[in-house]
Amino acid sequence: MMAAGLIDGWVEALLALVLVTGAFIVSRRDLHSLVFAYTIQSLFLVFIALLLYLAHPSEVLLSIALLTLSSKVLLIPYTIKRIQKQIKISRDVEFHYISPTGSLFVTILLFLFVYYSFSGVIGGLFTADKISYTGAVFGVSLMLMGMLVTFSRKKVITKIIGYLTMENGVLLFGLFLTELPLIIEVLIIIDLIIMVLLVTILAAGMDSTMEEFHNRLHIFRRED
Amino acid sequence: MNLSFIAYCFINIIFAALVSPFFMGIVKKVKALAQGRMGPPLMQQYYNLLKLFRKEALYSTDSSWVTRVAPYVNITVIATAALCVPLVFIPEAAYGISNVIVFLYLLATARFFMALSGLDAGSAFGGMGSSREMSISSVIEPVTIVVFAALAFIFNTLNLHEMFRESAGQVHLFDPSLVLISIPLFIVLIVETARIPVDNPETHLELTMIHEAMMIEYSGRDLALMDLSHAMKQTLLMAVLINIIFPWGIATEMGVAGIISAAAGFLLKGAALSAFIGLFESSLAKMRFFLVPNLIMIAFFLSALAILLEVFR
Amino acid sequence: MNFLFYALLIGLAIIAYLAFSTSHRKMQALSMVHALSYLAPAAYLLLYVDLPVYYLGNRYLFIDHLCLYEVLIATTVFFFAAMYSWGYVEGLVRAGELNRRDINVFYLMFNALLIVTVLSFMSNNLALFWIFAELTTVASALLVAILNSKKNIDAALEYILITSTLMLFSFIGLMFLFELSKQASTAGTLNWDELMAIAKSLPPTPLVFSFIFVFIGFASKAGIAPFHTWLPHAHSKAPSAVSAILSGVVLNIGLYGILRAYAIVRQTGAEQTISYFLIAFGVLTVFVAAFTMLHQKNLKKIMAFSSVENMGLMLAGIGIGTHAAVFWVLYHKLAHSLTKALLFFSAGVLHRQYLSNRADRMQYVFRLQPLAALGLIIGAAAISGMPPFPMFISKISILIQALSFSVPLLLALLLLVLMASASLVVFLIRLFSNKDEGRAHMERYDTQPGMEAPIIALIIILFAIGIFFPDGLRSMLDTITTELGFIGAKP
């Protein structure tokens, strides 16, 4: 059993690092480092879950840690890397509305927005536990950062990373805000994994070069 | 003005001047090793400086007094700035020199004279270098200020010495805000000392270079002074980073044993950081000029985040 | 008692069988059986069992009247879609738009979608509902992506990314709701019936916050503007049998979630705020849909936007929140699902004939495909709310309820709904008056009886429901509305 204050300190440090990886994902263009950042981020989440487990032992936290480790640190990055090799895209340099530099700035604003809206509406829920509040705010901010990536990048594979980041944000929020029943928690994670794997497979069809797709397309008439 | 402070002035400036070329040498050596070369011996920087000091300085016929004065101004300003950042021990009283804002303004002054001297001779390279230097500094300076503001916010003081003292007395291994602030501090260090993703310190004649282009007209003594002040500036920024993140070992009061062990400690930590800088430089390619704001934005983001994290406390 | 579970088991068995099956005919027949297998237990439960019934230890699943009603609508649409698939999917394969080896995947996903849809309606636990709703996205997106076209994959990806991204917001809202319920009752719950019971002690302001988050995700599934952007692409690119399901079933899932969540909020002090909130989004949705429909050239797209419009109208109806309004919203849901199925089935026939959804490619529709043309005309009349079709009375009644709310709301809705109907009619007139002499002798696409039967059946059912409003349906809708806590004068 570690001292509660020390755990809080470590958790806070990890939270900060999670946001650093979030910022990295928002601002980077090459897909390899995006996947890498995502993997590290998920690993940090595992550590956070384990630290929280040390503070308040419960099987839910432990199973979240295990599931996150096996799916988000190992399985999903592996799949994405394989797909990346297939589609031969290593950089995503197209942006819809804002450049990465701009998105970092927007992120700060988002963060402030989340902080203020949370403190106004639900600050009362967290009077006892400051670190949970920080965690919840960070979770929602990370989610919004992921959304920024999802909606501002053009390549599907980057959008997926954005979606995954959002999921991590939700996970973070869930870790700190409340403890859902174990079965629900597990089902949700499995559900998200299915979703991500499906999107990844579809993305392989979408982002692949034209030749691979041509033999499937040649009979197609022009339509709308 | 007490004796301790006077001793501090001498020790700090002399120590900074002495170790700076050594750190430069380590960065060069590590980069060379990373590229598969032997690289110059670690002491090479000292030999260079000694040789240059013995040589006479030549001036372009088109240059004015600015070129002649700038090296001396630079070394003076940087030496003064060295007083802001204690390397081995922290004096009890600092008489205002320890203020963060003073430190930043001193660095800005040095930069101003550097850019002016680049323009002075009217050569194409110098002008280009100065123009680039000023464009970059217009982006990096607000960020530098935010980074130091974050530091001031974390430690609740504008006094650098106070910050170091507090951080030296800290028990926790990692404070989250400090972990965060270390990254922007490192980025500021890289940008301010003209290192690789932003500038390339190796080259003299590429159109990409910034810092070296400004010094292209200098020779002999003046060049030595410029080089030395540049190296010292790097040491000072490194010292800020070291004293905030890895403060163990710095002496908080005067004493021969304490100072010697602190000096040895600083030498080790500085060498490690320099090696890290060398590796960092080797692992990256130089950025396109217009991508530099992106890097700086990351620094801005993280220091803003550090401030916010402090607000939550 | 556990009949519905037997039906689910049958479904699972069918799925397992399908994974190895090679006969198209069998797969299609089994899908029809699967859809039918829910009808009998549902009817039994409705007639002989006291609802609600709870299942599983934590009462995670349950069946109440609303659930049954939704399951009945869904399985009807699924049944007709499965029947329609026979000729339609075979046609897709012949035209090379679908690989023969993908037929398995198609029916697998079709049945999986049916199962998760039924389960999502049966979920008492809101988090479980969220999970199943996400799974419906997975299954239906695969059904959209199954055709051999990059555009289909694009549409499916857009569908998944937008809805599941926004569904994460819902999840945040649900966790929040869970935390709020912990304060009201020590254990904390996301079970809908328990939430209804403790709703009065939930604090209003955080509840509004939580509801808005929940709303965002479910609204994206229901195609509520501004989260509807995935909908027109997915609906128009999907095979028509799937479009009918998307529009007639999958959109209902989102609306169902909003209705359940709003039923909780209605018990609390936050009711007024959320009511305005829902009406605002409803009107915005109808507005966006009506104006987009004006200049559509694509048959299936205009139908997709018509779905958006109807979803908006229903959302506004839920927001009005009187007993009568919710009653007619539920009725409208039934009518809308059946009408949309009819429209998309007819559009599918035309797509087989002209290999395009664009109106300007369709010539001599009456001569070539008289049944589909009839289906389109009747469907369009029904969806615009002409008597004697069921949507006439539901639209009128929702509008009357809007009047009880405020006059400007009535005027806005009336104007927009009329505009949408008018653009649909103008579109059809253009479609049917297309004449290009060069294509006068186009070869007729031979429609299978499997494609014609659902169209005929749906036309008959629509007439029947519109003309006779069975007492059983009326009392069922009354019960549902009362169970949801919308108490007021009966219509």
Compute the number of strand runs of chain B: 0
The biggest chain-chain interface is: A-C, 42 and 49 residues
Largest sheet of chain C, in brief, is: 2 strands, antiparallel
**What is the number of helices of chain C?**
19
- The arrangement of helices and strands of chain B along the chain is HHHHHHHHHHH
* Quaternary structure annotation: heterotrimer
Structural class of chain B: mainly alpha
Secondary-structure class of chain C: mainly alpha
Task: Give the overall average pLDDT of chain C.
Answer: 88
Helical content band of chain C: over 70%
Uncertain segments of chain C: none
Total DSSP helices of chain B: 11
The proportion of residues in beta strands of chain B is under 5%
Query: Rounded to an integer, what's the Rg of chain B over CA atoms?
Result: 19 Å
Rg for CA atoms of chain C: 22 Å
The domain tally of chain B reads 1
- The fraction of residues assigned to DSSP E strands of chain C is under 5%
Question: How would you characterize the overall build of this protein?
Answer:
The complex is a heterotrimer of chains A (224), B (313) and C (491). By secondary structure, chain A is mostly helical. In chain A, 80% of the residues lie in helices and 0% in strands. Chain A has one domain (4-209). Residues 213-224 of chain A have low confidence and may be disordered. By secondary structure, chain B is mainly alpha-helical. Chain B has one domain. In chain B, helix 7 (176-192) packs antiparallel against helix 9. Chain C has 491 residues and is mainly alpha-helical. Chain C has one domain (3-483). In chain C, 77% of the residues lie in helices and 1% in strands. Chain C has helices spanning 3-18, 24-48, 65-94, 102-122, 126-145, 150-184, 192-198, 204-222, 230-237, 240-266, 271-293, 299-320, 323-354, 365-368, 370-383, 390-405, 407-432, 449-467, 471-483; strands at residues 53-55, 61-63. Chain C has a two-stranded antiparallel ribbon. In chain C, strand 1 and strand 2 (61-63) form a beta hairpin. In chain C, helix 6 (150-184) packs antiparallel against helix 8, helix 9 packs across helix 12 and helix 10 runs parallel beside helix 12 (299-320). Chains in contact: A-B, A-C. The interface between A and C is large, with 42 and 49 residues.
